[in-house]
Specification:
Elements lengths: L17 E5 L3 H15 L4 E5 L2 H14 L3 E7 L1 E2 L2 E2 H11 L4 E6 L7 H12 L5 E4 L7 H17 L7 E5 L5 H11 L4 E5 L3 H7 L9 E3 L5 E3 L3 H8 L8 E8 L3 H12 L4 E4 L26 H15 L2 E3 L4 E7 L2 E6 L4 E9 L3 E2 L6 H4 L6 E3 L2 H4 L7 E5 L3 H10 L5 E6 L10 H9 L3 E5 L1 E7 L6 E6 L5 E5 L2 E4 L4 E2 L24 H7 L13 E3 L11 H20 L1
Parallel strand pairs: 1-2, 1-3, 3-6, 6-7, 8-9, 12-13, 12-17, 13-14, 17-28, 19-26, 20-21, 20-26, 21-22
Antiparallel strand pairs: 4-5, 8-10, 10-11, 15-16, 16-17, 18-27, 23-24, 24-25
């Protein structure tokens, strides 16, 4: 049975979100229903059906009524229909619903089942898999279901502890705040002051200076500076100077890994970041090949877990505070902060990562925040619901962004300079992108122009190797092109390659190595006691797992240096 995507209803439904389970085996379905009702019936409706046709009919009715569906679970085979087929149809009706295949415990580890699951994920037919619940109370089942519901809540901007941002326009300082919040893995929502929700939030406030930030505890910041936000969060570096065993510059995966291992091993640790928590990893809506997360994990969720882990071990954090200067003084490295703070460290780990290169097209740079975004696919996706969007880039982050945006947008065009996706993208992502029904891949192509009246409405594409150009409609442009390391602030004594990446260990020049008076440790920069880890380092592998590994390895060498 095929379905037609439902049109967005004029009036959304007001019922509780729905959890649906579909299985033609009565006993198995009863066990799933018992678990769902016992845990979630207070906050969700639960509906369990025994046929694919009944499930699709019910889902079509729900879509027409404007109701919300949070999660659909389906057995491996329902009648003569694979559960993956049903879950694939769900995406057309409810693009944001989480979809999971119920598999038998005895099938975990079976090659045939693994092939089915991976194929279905690659083709975009399912989001997750979960082992069927077993009596009396299956906490592993509920842990999985809870994680699915959290992902759904975040996609709906309904996650707990959400920061509300209210601005008069999409661009300017309002966009800067959204960008920072998007990069720091914090749930947030943006509202125009004239919208219904914006008016509700502003009710009773009187005259305000925009943009506003309404914190989860109810406090309000009016047109806040970065340092005011940092002070409100209690994460400032004071000007009188403090001393640490270890200071980590950068709070992406590499920096967070170094913080966890450094703090857990007894080092007095501080992490400083010019933005917030998570770095570029927060642009990844689903990392499926990260060790220990068989169902995948979002970059934001991974960053939040690592932050909490490091915090419990005793690491301190200072957000929205750029480091502007690094210098050596006696046996310490001194770091100066843009807002006046100073810290000294016995050892420093540079984990500032890299960001996407600028496109350099003036007409599009003028629309940043108003349809043009660098990264930000995870945070800005709701803005492009039902629209035509373009993603530029050929690496994993671009593939992940295209797949995530495809859940919101009418159509996603992935523009790649290379001749094929396989040049820079993992095989599992290439398969997923190629199988997605509303993603079009344009290889050998680049964006050369575009524009719009206050918001992007078109782009101009150039087909490389010819003089041919094409104007296309576009409501959103998400740019993920190459990597530019955050190293402009570093002094000349920190050696870098021609692209700005930090040289370390065996890659240092002969002059730098001779100046040490000892062999530098493998991740050490040209400044003794200063190491580099993750994407900022010359020769690093641009993967989350690699950055995490280098962050942990850096601490091993920190101990060696502190012991000498």
């Amino acid at each position: 049975m095929s379905v037609t995507p439902a049109r967005r209803p004029a009036q959304p439904g007001t019922s509780l979100p729905l959890l649906m389970a579909v299985d033609d085996h009565p006993d198995r379905l009863a066990k799933v229903e018992r678990e769902l009702r016992s845990r979630y019936e207070r906050d969700y409706r639960v509906r369990c059906l025994s046929s694919v046709d009944d499930a699709l009919t019910a889902l079509e009715d729900l879509a027409t009524a404007g109701e919300q569906v949070a999660l659909v679970l389906a057995g491996e085979v329902i009648g003569d229909t694979p559960g993956t087929t049903l879950l694939g149809e769900v995406r057309q009706l409810f693009p944001h619903a989480e979809r999971a295949l119920l598999i038998a415990n005895s099938h975990v580890g079976a090659p045939d089942t693994a092939d089915v699951v991976l194929e279905a994920i690659s083709r975009g037919r399912i989001d997750h898999w979960v082992v069927r619940p077993a009596p009396p109370r299956d906490e592993q089942f509920h842990q999985a279901v809870a994680s699915f519901l959290l992902e759904w809540a975040e996609s709906q901007r309904a996650a707990p502890h959400t920061v509300e941002v209210v601005g008069e326009t999409w661009s300017g300082r309002a966009y800067e705040l959204r960008e920072v919040l998007g990069r720091c893995a914090l749930p947030h929502r943006f509202h125009l002051a004239g919208s219904d929700e914006g008016q509700r939030l502003l009710d009773g406030m009187g005259e305000c200076r925009f943009p506003l930030m309404i914190m989860p505890d109810g406090s309000v910041l009016q047109d806040p500076t970065d340092i005011e936000i940092a002070r409100a969060a209690g994460t400032t570096v004071e000007p009188h100077g403090e001393s640490y065993d270890l200071v980590i510059v950068g709070c992406g995966p590499g920096g967070l890994s170094a913080a966890v291992y450094g703090a857990s091993e007894g080092l007095r640790t501080l992490v400083i970041d010019s933005g917030g928590l998570g770095g570029q990893a927060t642009s990844s809506s689903s990392i499926r090949n990260y060790l220990g997360f068989p169902r995948g994990v979002s970059g934001g969720n991974l960053a939040r877990r690592a932050y909490e882990q490091a915090w419990v071990f005793g690491a301190r954090f200072a957000f929205m505070q750029p480091v502007t200067r690094l210098r050596r003084e006696r046996d310490a490295t001194v770091l100066e902060i843009a807002h006046g703070g100073v810290v000294a460290a016995r050892a420093v780990v540079l984990a500032t990562g890299a960001s996407y290169r600028r496109l350099g097209v003036p007409s599009l740079e003028a629309l940043i925040g108003a349809g043009v975004f660098y990264g930000a696919a995870a945070s800005e996706a709701p803005l492009v619901s039902g629209e035509e969007v373009v993603v530029v880039g050929g690496a994993n982050s671009a593939g992940q962004a295209a797949l995530h945006l495809a859940r919101w947008a009418k159509r996603v065009t992935l523009v790649v300079r290379a001749a094929s996706l396989t040049a820079g993208m993992s095989h599992y992502l290439v398969r997923a992108v190629e199988e997605a029904p509303n993603i079009e891949v344009r290889t050998g192509t680049e964006v050369v122009d575009g524009g719009g009246d206050g918001w992007l409405d078109h782009l101009v594409l150039h087909h490389r190797g010819s003089a041919e150009v094409e104007r296309v409609d576009a409501y959103g442009l998400f740019l993920m092109i190459g990597a530019r390391p955050h190293t402009d602030w570093l002094p000349p004594i920190v050696e870098r390659d021609a692209d700005g990446f930090v040289m370390t260990g065996p890659d240092l020049s002969d002059d730098a190595r001779r100046a040490f008076g000892r062999p530098p440790v493998p991740l050490e920069t040209s400044v003794p006691g200063v190491l580099a880890a993750g994407d900022v380092r010359h020769g690093s592998v641009k993967r989350v797992a690699s950055a995490v590994g280098e962050g942990s390895i850096a601490i091993r060498y920190v101990h060696r240096l502190l012991a000498t």
